[in-house]
UniProtKB/TrEMBL annotation, chain A:
Protein name as catalogued: Spermidine/putrescine transport system permease protein
Native organism: Planomicrobium stackebrandtii
Family (UniProt): Belongs to the binding-protein-dependent transport system permease family.
Entry keyword set: Cell inner membrane, Cell membrane, Membrane, Transmembrane, Transmembrane helix, Transport
Cleaved signal peptide residues: none
Membrane topology: Multi-pass membrane protein
Localization in the cell: Cell inner membrane; Cell membrane
Automatic annotation (TrEMBL), chain B:
Native species: Planomicrobium stackebrandtii
Protein name (record): Spermidine/putrescine transport system ATP-binding protein
SMART domains the record matches: AAA (SM00382)
Residue ranges annotated for the ABC transporter domain, each copy included: 4-241
A molecular-function term among this protein's GO annotations: ATP binding
InterPro entries: AAA+_ATPase, ABC_SmlMolc_Importer, ABC_transporter-like_ATP-bd, ABC_transporter-like_CS, Mo/tungstate-bd_C_term_dom, P-loop_NTPase
Amino acid sequence: MKSPRRLLNSILFLLLFFVIGLPFVPLILSSVSFGWPWPNVLPDSFSFRAWEYVLADSSGTWSVVGTSLLVAFIVTAVNLLLAVPAANALVRNSFRGKWLMEAIIFAPIVIPPFVAVMGIHLTFLRLGLTETILGVVLAHISPTLPYMVRAIMISYNTLSVDWENQARMLGAGPISRFVHVVLPHLLPGIAAGASLSILISLSQYLITFIIGSGQVVTLPILLFPFISGGDPAVASAYSLLYAGIAVLTLVGMDLALKKYYQNKKAATGKG
Amino acid sequence: MSDLRIINIEKQYPQTKQQKDPAFSLQPVALTIKEGEFFSLLGPSGCGKTTLLKLVAGLMPADKGEIWVGDDHLTAVAPEARRFAMVFQQSLLFPHMTVEDNVAFGLKMQKIGKRERLADAQSMLEHVGLSGYGSRFPDELSGGQQQRVALARALVAKPRVLLMDEPFSALDPSLREEMRELLRGVQKEFHVTVLFVTHDREEAFYLSDRIGVMSEGKLLQIGKPKEIYEQPANVKVASFLGLKNIIEGRVINNRFVSNDQSFEVPVQTSIKTGPSVMIIRPETIRLVPDNIVKNLQCLYFRGVIQQKIFNHGFYSVKVQAGEYLLTCSFTSQEAENMKVGQTIDLMMNNGDLRFLNE
């Protein structure tokens, strides 16, 4: 019984590796190549020129990474503040026009960002928000918020009002109820929503490009000219860096969350 | 004295479009529960007893009426500030906290220091027989243990009133009895006022100092368990209490005559002329001893045994008398020689009969 299962597991793992891992191989080769003319299977010669350029202070990579992460984290924090009350209202109450509210919140998932961003751009021009980080952050909220709300709504769906009533009957005011009862229950949903929010914010090109007008430079903005402009080696190196940062951020968040739960358990365990 | 006073509280649920039947409403309820008293609300599901409990807790706003404890007017006070506690049907222990922290939660909300509140929690856990379980998490406990923790958690902050919403109905019968014993002991020990909601007659009779019987949003009768059982105020109460032998008939000239004419008994003048019922409690029916001189204080009748069932130490015997199938309780000794199909003479004191106008 066990060995066929193990076999299946290894086949699936290999498949996963080929689908996810294989595309990285040419990317890595390309990033260390020095000329790779068609139809050669391998590059002619190797050099670390691209990486030297990317990692050098003069290319400004690190400040761009900083900007990208700053935008992503602010967007996620704002999303959190918006999504928790929104999810609460959408799950717990039934009111006239609720479907319309949900439709508006979830619309960015189906409507192309280009449609909205033109209007946003015009408005932001008048408000003087273009070319600022604040403007980019605000513009990033529309494509990321739906995922955050969705994830937290699922958490709220499984939280019966009885829990809060119970806490209430034990003397817990609104803040205590939220901190001690609601938040711990929402945490997995918040983690899922925050991961999506960070990833989507990190990968926005069009919105950042239009609202930031080249003044707010995030990784995709930095990457794009190299892809279209003909230095595939540097583009590959940036792509790898970009993927690495996304993965690191997610892993970091996951670890922080696990640590939070462990601490909680350890602290209560000690009593 | 800090009695709990419920003054003409009422609640009307708005009628929704989907439901065609009239909206449920809780008729005005007036009730005083003495300090340290164990009061049960007994009624079938959907009779409004949980609604009443939530109104008292403040988890639901009342349309009219007031709640007082002693001299404190609590109608407008938020539930978290009423210093009540509540145990729900599910234990609702916070899953991310240990048993100890769960029990200490109420004290934490009162800003009591960590050492003190954990010590209190420990001693309360001891009272419910769970000392040593403090550092476990709720999912490591059985259903009965979880409900014990919920009880400890409710009691630890010394609530003015403990509200309980069918707390044992999710447990299996033997565990339920154990919990009953425990609750009774703890309630007497801490002298806590309890408002208990249940649909289980046995539970209510076992635990309560007084019982309020509810049906369809109305509080029908309040009284000590014995009073309610022996003198139900009306047919609804009697049938909900599971009283057998409800015989329909009419009262004419201060005499009750059953519909099939087989029973005729004098009644007190307080019973009005007209359609009414007679209730015979199974344990008041006796065999007629030999050589007895019949007197007017007793009702005699003859019946045919239809069924004989052994039931927890006594026999439950069904006797066909006239058109009625009466349930009687006999001791094993009395029932020894009874056989199905046999005709027997039975009697009861007129004073044990209960008459109600319909």
